Amino acid sequence: MKKSILMVMALMVLAVPTVTGQKINTDATLAKLEKSDADAANAKKNVKAAMWVTRAKTYLDAIMEPTKNLFGGMDATVLRIAMGEPDEVRDDAQNARQIWVYPWVEVFVKDNRVIAWNQTREVKEGMFEVMKEAADKAYDMDPKMEAKLKPILDAAINYYSQVGSASIDVPAYKVAVDAYVKAATLQEHKIYPQVDPQYYFFAGQLAAFLGAEDVAYYADGEKYLNKAKELGYMDPNGNTYYFLFHCYYGQKDADHANVLKARDVLLEGIDKFPKNEKILDGLMQLYTSEESVGDPADLVSMIDKALAETPDNPDLWFGRGRVFFKLHNYDECINSFLKINELKPNDYDTLFYIGYFRIAKADEMNKALNAKADTFSSFDEYAAEQKVVNAEYMKALPYFEKAFELKPDSVDCAQMLKELCFRLRTEEGILDKYHKYNTAYKKLKGIE
Question: Where are the domains of the chain?
Answer without folding.
Answer: 346-448
